[in-house]
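INFO batch 0412 | record 1 of 1 | parsing
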Amino acid sequence: MAEHDLVVIGAGSAGLSITHVAARMGLRVALVERERMGGDCLNTGCVPSKALLAAAHAATEARRAGRLGIRLPEPEVDWAAVRAHVQGAIAAIAPQDSEDRYRALGAEVIRAEARFVSPDAVEVAGRRITARRFVVAAGSRAAVPAIPGLEDVPFLTNATLFGMKEKPAHLLILGGGAIGLEMAQAHAALGCRVTVVTSGRLGAREDPELVAVLRDALAEAGVSILEDARVVAAEAGAVLLLADGRRLAGSHLLVAVGRTPNLESLGLEAAGIRATPRGIATDAGLRSTTNRRVFAAGDIADPEGLGPRYLTHVGSLHAGILARRILFRLPAKLDYGALPRVTYTDPELAQVGMTEAEARAADHKVQVLRWPFAENDRAIAEGRTEGLVKLVATPGGRLLGVGIAGRHAGEMIGLWTHAIGARVPLRDLAGLVVPYPTRAEAGKRAAGVPALEQLFSRPARWAARTLGRLPW
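INFO prediction complete | emitting tokens
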């Protein structure tokens, strides 16, 4: 008989979530983690980055107060105090992810590296552990591009960025995705000179119309942006050489060009587990395609070749699927059609479903509906009118995707995630009653554009005039 019902490798979002459910259901669970409990999200990702952004946004709001008639002096940034706030946020959340909590739930927590030694066993700290099922949730790390000389430069990644004791004088950021944009704005607001270098365009995955709003905000914050810039070499002293001959010198270099799965130390070959460069190959229900005892979750899963989604809430989504499949043997499979993502700059950029370009590439007939925050009363009252809500729908009113660029976009995207997942028609969304004045009205107004066009069409106006002349 196997020693455990379930062995979970990795105590990040996905691993902790499935361990929590399995342990509370009374299964014999072992949770193995070689580094810090809470994984990347708690220690070097979501939590510290959002804590740093909160400090940066506070400084920016102080500078903007003059627009509302409140004149404040230039904010004084205490870098040590900012760092203390970041570490304090981690410390406050850490008990939820701690060894003690999961041991109290009934799980065995083992702080060591796990390596498969057979299809049904792993070796942990010299101990062979067998299990009926395994979940590999070992996560990912920052990808390092093959740039000559980079290996000799003491560059930063998200794993080391939040441990810096000194404030960067000039931070070079290699990469124009969410991490690069968030950290660019955060450090600029906190008094650093910042240059972003990307081989493509900023926010390459996002709708260009919405990214333009972020680009303007970054420029206003003083961030220098170099798009379509190919780096051909790196030199000591945080220096980047570009293909066009330019030489960029900074005090610190942050590499944020993507993620790569933590596959190397797992001994997957010994367990007959197939992996791709993007992660462990699984079916749509996250089960290994070559070892039925093994499932994958979080950043390390490559379901049906779709690749990973480097988002903490995907780990929770995966855990729910695994709970149904492993604990109750119920059918369950992934559907990323209503998966939201947010870039937490200010203004934020939130997206769910297809972008306009993706919808057209999929051969959908598309109608695009927009409502700018410049026509939203709450945004006007706050003096923050940048951005818009953009809906991508079929002519028949089926919602395909929603993008929001604006203040608190991440808080607004939840409704639209439900709308796409539940296939709520535009006419129902247009009839939604929302409080006045709120930014949520912008989405309702965008959804109501087709109805307004029908209402004020020539036939409708003729009908209204005719009915108005008839006796009541």
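INFO post-check: The two ends are 83 Å apart (CA to CA).
INFO record closed
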